[in-house]
Amino acid sequence: MSPLLSKHQSPDVSGRTQHITPENAGWDYVGFDAYELKPGQALRLAAEDRELCLVLVAGKATVRTDGQTFASIGARMDPFERTKPYAVYVAPGDHCEVTAETGLELAVCSAPGLGNFPTRLIAPENIDAEQRGNGYNKRYVHNILPDDKEADSLLVVEVYTDEGCTSSYPSHKHDTDNEPRETYLEETYYHRLSPAQGFCFQRVYTDDRDLDESMAVYDRDVVKTPKGYHPVATVAGYDNYYLNVMAGPTRKWLFTWENDHNWVNSEVYADKHK
Questions:
Q1: CA separation for the pair 92, 104 (Å, rounded)
Q2: How far is CA 116 from the centre of its chain?
Q3: N or C: which terminal CB in the chain sees fewer CB atoms within 10 Å?
């Protein structure tokens, strides 16, 4: 199995099913945890020097921090409802407690924080949505915490890709600190499939093929992308959702297309698939 693939685990005593840290990923910035909580179950997150973005992937909860309470937030019961999520930005140094009011699928995204921005609710009306691409490269995006919204390091987005389509494509990379052309950003992909027994494919590779990993990814698995290109492809019968977390030394999403496949962005391809 690829070292870049983190398989879904049964919930531990805290409800955690995924645990990605800079230490176990071998990088410097991105952390990601997924939890599956039962109704009434509480999760306590200690204050630390990292900022958090809590994404309610599915279910309802009350979130309490040192100074605020966000009561009974959450609307969608399944990410494939394709409605915008609720999220909470938690400033570094804030304690946090999440109490599930229904079955709760919770993503905890983390990165280094400087304390420049306060804890706040990110409600659906605060989240922009957009369609990207055309034809078999069409996907639908919810920009939960993009680079024009307040945070020190974190970038968080969720993406829907229909059966038989590609995503994070044409292949692009953001592994070089070379502004204004490109920024260095580590990235995780938390995948969901519908129906749940399905799978998709993800490849992570560099120009020199020093890194070239292709993975069959199942429901609730995580793919780590420390460098290189990282396209996703779905298969017939199964729609894909993924939650991306990115962070690096500069909070800008600047990337480079792989030259061989950049033609898929062209009007020639778009016109062919109108």
A1: 24
A2: 22
A3: C
Q: Which residues contact 33 (CB under 8 A, 6 or more apart)?
A: 16, 18, 19, 20, 107, 108, 110
| Threshold 0.90, pTM exceeds | yes
Contact in structure between 157 and 173 (CB atoms under 8 Å): no
Measured between alpha carbons, how far is residue 105 from residues 53, 89, 153, 271 in Å? 14, 17, 23, 40
- pLDDT-derived band at 23 (thresholds 50, 70, 90) equals very high
Tokens matching residue 15: 């409800």
d(CA 157, CA 111): 15
Q: Give the tens place of pLDDT for each residue, 77-110.
A: 999 999 999 999 999 999 999 999 999 999 999 9
Q: Is residue 1 part of a domain?
A: no
Q: Would you say the C-alpha torsion 110, 168, 146, 102 has a positive or negative sign? A: negative
Structure tokens that stand for 256 in this block: 């480079």
Encoded tokens for 163: 């059966």
Query: Which domain does 146 fall in, by range?
Result: 7-267
Distance in Å from the first CA to the final CA of the chain: 39
274 in a structural domain: no
pLDDT at residue 267 in the model: 85
For the chain, give the longest Cα–Cα distance.
54
What are φ and ψ of residue 101, in 5° steps? -100, -20
Domain of 244: which CATH number? 2.60.120.10
Does pLDDT of 220 surpass 80? yes
pLDDT in tens, 42-84: 999 999 999 999 999 999 999 999 989 999 999 999 999 999 9
Describe the strand order of the beta sheet including 61-65 as a list of residue ranges: 42-45, 96-100, 61-65, 69-73
* Residue 126 in domain: yes
> Using 50, 70 and 90 to split pLDDT, how confident is the model at 165?
very high
